[in-house]
Amino acid sequence: MYLDNAATTQIPLQVLEAMEAHYWNYNSNIHRGIHFLSESSTARVEYARNKIKEFIGASDPEEVIFTSGTTQAVNIVAGSYRETLEAGDEVIVTEMEHHSNFCPWQNACNRSGASLKIIPVDDNGDLDMDVYKTLLTERTKIVAVTYCSNVLGTVNPVHEIIRLAHDKKARVLVDAAQIMRHTSIDVNYLDCDFLCFSGHKIMGPYGTGVLFGKREALEELQPVNYGGGMVDTVTYKETVSGELPFKLEAGTINISGVTGLASAVKYLGELGINKISRYENRLLAQAESMLREINGVHVLGTPSERAGVLSFELDDFHYYDTAMMLDKLGIAVRSGNLCAQPLLSRFGLSGVVRMSPAFYNTEKEIESFVNGIERIISITARKIA
Amino acid sequence: MRSIKEKQNEIVADFEAMEDDFLKYSYLVELSTILPAMDDSLKNDSNLVKGCQSHVWMDIKISDGRINFEADSDTMIIKGVLYLLKEVLSGQDVKEVYETEIDFLKKADIMAAFESGRQKGIGFIIGTLKEKARLALL
């Protein structure tokens, strides 16, 4: 029973077939060859770019940059800001960021002399929006915030966060890695400057991801990676970058992966994100209410809105032990610090157990998972003769 | 007193009688509940076993050429492992401790199901006991 979907999702047949079809029929590098295969491969990548554009409501396919995942997407933006931030400038992140959207900004601030400000999380697991308002100043250059916590499942009020940041003329990057199956994304409505997500958390392949950026925000970025495919002219003295989106896609992108990602997005679109979201929320609510009934189980947080994940601890049981015992019952969950050490420290924890259902899980599986937890807890009640 | 080898064989036989991995780990958790408590003052840096992912403390004493130790961990499964190590090694001759391969976890098929970090950690625990025995032999 697979309940580790926040880490990665299983791949539907359609996605596997799309990637296989690429290697069987179209395998060739893109944009650089005047031959049939290269033209076909290029067309498939640009089709994928359009599919992603439609999926997130972007206005222009050139605002869609293919990356290896969310981590690379954040690093492309933070790497550019690292070069332009000045001492006295400010960057705001939240206490609930995944390390992917924390460490790159910490590094950018440490290297540039800018200050890293952190929006705290309250005891329920919600962001303290009052503190956020006080952190925003005229020196805030960018706010980098997760749409949905990978530990608490908190769905943050990103629309409001973006509006407030824009009042101070700060840009906003949204880490959408954990939200993509849980809400329809419309970047125009959100008005975010950047938004990124990974393919492998939305039924796509590993090594694929997207950095969306408003054209003017992307044009401000200096490339972090230089090389083939991203240049206009190269002389002994200098390299002049090419146009968007290619200036931020140095080297050969994951061509087969991107075709798989397009297929995944099509698949999700056909199922319907809202339908998926309603179903997954029901499974999560079922798990939460059943776990809260059990003595010795402590669910982390009671955020105003939760999606995707449920983290918990068991009395007496180390998170490794719990995850290992569940594994021996055939139940896959994640345990550890979940790449969110600042958040876990805030709750005085070094690790938790996290379950994250997807639409292919069932209510019966949630019951089996909860039975597994009950079995584990009952072990300590037994006496050894 | 039975030898280290005999004690290890008994444990392996116990585990072999168990039907599946869940029962084996359940048993380790049960054993953890009867591991004698270690005084908090002994849970200090010098007794902390280096290299373990979870916290493991061992206070090892050698007296009259025999090894004895108190131990604790923040994870129940490792506490269960420590209980078994105490069963096998407490009161044994240091020469025998040093020279005998401590392989009951491997033979009982417990080790294979641990992830690599935990396998290494258990290796460090056994290594620490053997090193104390070796130093006592000098």
Name the helix and strand elements of chain B from N-terminus to C-terminus, one letter apiece: HHEEHHHH
Low-pLDDT sequence parts of chain A: none
Major sheet of chain B: size, sense and barrel closure? 2 strands, antiparallel
| Morphology call of chain A | globular
Number of helices of chain A: 13
What is the overall pLDDT average of chain A? 96
Residue-averaged pLDDT of chain B:
92
Read across the widest sheet of chain A, the strand sequence of neighbours is 1-7-6-5-4-2-3
Give the beta-strand count of chain B: 2
Tally of helical runs of chain B: 6
Based on CA atoms alone, the radius of gyration of chain B comes out at: 14 Å
> Biggest sheet of chain B, strands in spatial order?
1-2
- Structural class of chain A, please? alpha/beta
**Beta content of chain A:** 15-25%
Shape of chain B: globular
Notes on the protein architecture:
- The complex is a heterodimer of chains A (385) and B (138).
- By secondary structure, chain A is of the alpha/beta class.
- Helix content of chain A is 41%, strand content 15%.
- Chain A has helices at 13-26, 36-56, 70-84, 103-112, 129-135, 158-167, 187-190, 215-220, 255-271, 273-292, 319-328, 341-346, 363-379; strands spanning 64-67, 90-94, 115-119, 140-146, 171-175, 194-198, 209-213, 231-234, 239-241, 297-299, 310-314, 334-336, 352-355.
- In chain A, the strands form 3 sheets. In chain A, strands 1-7-6-5-4-2-3 form a 7-stranded mixed β-sheet, sandwiched between helices. Chain A has a 4-stranded antiparallel β-sheet with strand order 10-11-13-12, covered by helices on one side. A two-stranded antiparallel sheet of chain A has the order 8-9.
- In chain A, helix 3 runs parallel beside helix 4.
- The mean pLDDT of chain A is 96.
- With 138 residues, chain B is mainly α.
- A two-stranded antiparallel ribbon of chain B has the order 1-2.
- The model of chain B has no long low-confidence stretch (mean pLDDT 92).
- The interface between A and B is medium-sized, with 15 and 21 residues.
